[in-house]
Amino acid sequence: MREEEGGGGRRRGREDRPELPPQSPEEQARAICLRLLTGSPRTRRQLADALHKRGIPDEVSQEVLSRYEEVGLIDDAAFAGAWVESRHRGRGLARRALAQELRTKGVHAALVEEALEQLDGDQEEQTARELVDRKLRSTRGLERDKRIRRLAGMLARKGYPEGMALRVVRRALETEGEDTEDLRHTGE
Asked: What is the pLDDT, as a whole number, of residue 178?
């Protein structure tokens, strides 16, 4: 890339460019928020934390964030709904794991509950069955108890309740012809 030549054959570099006036804290806050929101949706708290880390005064942050909420650039309820849909479908996470993730992102408890209402128990159990069906193949040849631990553990890490996890695992193993009579009382 060639540098442009100014009058008299002199080259112009960065040092010759006129300096921009320093940005006010409000301008800095707006620029930071817009840059972060361009990459992906963020919660109000995520943006507030980013502004705090960059030394933006709290009163300025609150003013900018409130304005962005007013115009719809920040919408924690929409963020939570999209998060639940995406993470349940994509990673198979259950309500408990999704609630924890949303809380760590600063979503208010009422908004978390509202977002989780889109998942019903049947849908959650169906997803658990699909996860177990995919993992079942890789456990063939192992002892039954070891298979149960691996499959139920996988579901537990994704936030599924113990009872549901054991019920789903038991049914999957029965479908394969495993004897699960001694597991009948767990997970019901």
From this structure: 72
| pLDDT score of 92 | 95
pLDDT at 179 over 80: no
Number of C-beta neighbours around residue 161 at 10 A: 17
**Paired tokens of 130:** 């699909």
**Which pLDDT belongs to residue 2?**
47
Residue 18, SS3 per DSSP: coil
CA-CA distance, 127 to 124, in Å (whole number)?
5
Backbone angles phi, psi at 170, to 5 degrees: -60, -45
* Cα maximum dimension of the chain: 93
Q: CA-based Rg of the chain, rounded to a whole angstrom?
A: 26
**Predicted structure pTM score:** 0.77
List 5's β-bridge partners, or say none.
11
Structure-token pair, residue 90? 């994509």
Using DSSP, state whether 11 is helix, strand or coil: strand
